[in-house]
Amino acid sequence: MAGEGPASAAAELLDGSLLLLRRWRAAGGGGRELLGAWDAVRAGVVAPALAAASGACLAMSAMLLAEALFMAAASLARRRPERRYRAEPLGACDGEDEESGLLGYPMVLVQIPMYNEREVYKLSIAAACGLSWPSDRVIVQVLDDSTDPTVKDLVELECKLWAKKGKNVKYEVRNNRKGYKAGALKEGMLHAYVQQCDFLAVFDADFQPEADFLIRTIPYLVRNPQIALVQARWEFVNPNECLMTRIQKMTLDYHFKVEQEAGSSTFAFFGFNGTAGVWRISAIKEAGGWDDRTTVEDMDLAVRAGLKGWKFVYVGDVKVKSELPSSLKAYRRQQHRWTCGAANLFRKTGKEILLTKEVSFWRKLYLLYSFFFVRKVVAHVVPFMLYCVVIPLSVLIPEVTIPAWGVVYIPTTITLLYAIRNPSSIHFIPFWILYENVMSFHRTKATFIGLLEFGSVNEWVVTEKLGNSSKTEPVPQILERPRCRFWGRWTMSEVLFAVFLFTCATYNLVHGPDLYFIYIYLQAITFLIVGTGFCGPSNS
């Protein structure tokens, strides 16, 4: 039958191999000793090791479930930020003069770091120059680290054009890229004109804030002196470009709706997202300024400011347009940078968090356990180790049995918690699970690189932008037909892992008493699709 082709052939091959081994064993000679030795090693070494890995993964799964329930409850029970903090428009309170210094319109610095951003530089500069704020009370600082002289000329020309229109635009370059984005932001703060500014807004080159962004965020900082950071939510101009961008949107929507909201409403702390946020400059200085010791300078600054007792507020109603990576290579690199940097920051700040006396015990516990250990380590390791390694291996090692609550109930509950916060994308949940498990393969590797500080721990590759606008027509393709030769687009680690999963699934299909092979086959196919580069929008 046509539908039985690959599975049937694999099953026949596996059965044939096992039959030959049994005949070899029955014939005596080395076969009997070899298989006997394997049985002994499997029972004495492999099975206990796999059982220990299973137990560790199940324990960490329980941590993930508890964390997901906590964040869901905190984000749903939260009070709106304008009810927790004073956020009246500037000059709106009785007795306040709109033009009276800080309570009028404080000086704001807008920083836009760039690196060879040919496709998007006009969008971000235009959006920053279009902010509704008195032109003499805002400075737009374009920090251009471009190495392409043509791009540098174009960006400089764009800044001059806006300056001729009356906007206070500063075009700044430096002679090296030391510290990458953190280095550019740090050097940008050293200019004399920055000393007159009270607040700092940061936008990456593909971010386009609405005109009222400052009007809606600055009041939190002006009227609440304990607040250091106001973080806005990301909105996306290309979520429907392909299945990969839809999945990214689901993950990031959960991050903002649940993780950021929960952190803001419980401990007034969360990780700065590196863009679409406004900082109090005095808080940045007190925390020690931008630091390039990791690839997550944004999170690093947030942690140091949080340890000084500063509070953060997430304002989900303020949204800033941005672009999702539609290239699989760009997305892999972005995820490596974010994951590796967070794990490395955990290594470098763990002791500092534990020993600080400026924050409460509960806030330290939240930082160490919830924010770092569970979300930045466990959340990346468990999806890969349990669902892509332990469960597939358990079908080959009959001595190890994984309880149903670990295989079915916990992941189903966590998935439902994700789904209810993304109701419009609930039909993509199966694809999201399979794809995120593949990405967890790379995130796990990046996590250990960060924790152990291996060679590529500080690797920084700027995420490629294509300049997609909100008017871009959705691309109907789900799979991409790459133009390059296969060895240029294949990721052999993913392909080989797909072979491993196919082997486990086929063995389970033939000899297993359960139905694990259904999931394992689907996961193997996903690894194969991603590993061979057939993922993303079509360029044809």
Quick structural summary:
By secondary structure, this protein is α/β, with parallel strands linked by helices.
Helix content: 55-70%
Average pLDDT metric: 88
Radius of gyration based on Cα positions: 26 Å
The residue ranges in which pLDDT falls below 50 over 5 or more consecutive positions are 98-102, 469-482
* Proportion of beta-strand residues: 5-15%
- Topology, number of strands: 7
Total helical segments = 17
Biggest sheet features: 7 strands, mixed
List the strand order in the largest sheet. Answer: 3-2-1-4-6-5-7
Q: What gross morphology would you assign? A: elongated
Report the span from N to C terminus.
Answer: 35 Å
The SSE order reads HHHEHEHEHEHEHEHHEHHHHHHH
| Class based on secondary structure composition and strand pairing | alpha/beta
What does this entry look like structurally?
The chain is about 55% helix and about 10% strand. It has about 550 residues and is an alpha/beta fold. It has a seven-stranded mixed β-sheet, with helices on both faces. The model is unreliable at about 100 and about 470-480 (pLDDT under 50).
Topology (elements, then pairings):
Elements: H1 5-26, H2 30-76, H3 81-84, E1 108-114, H4 121-129, E2 138-144, H5 149-164, E3 169-173, H6 180-188, E4 199-202, H7 213-223, E5 227-236, H8 243-266, E6 277-280, H9 281-287, H10 297-307, E7 311-322, H11 328-355, H12 361-394, H13 404-419, H14 429-452, H15 486-489, H16 492-511, H17 516-531
Parallel strand pairs: 1-2, 1-4, 2-3, 5-7
Antiparallel strand pairs: 4-6, 5-6
Helix pairs in contact: 1-2, 1-16, 2-8, 2-12, 2-13, 4-5, 8-14, 9-10, 10-11, 11-12, 11-14, 12-14, 14-17, 16-17
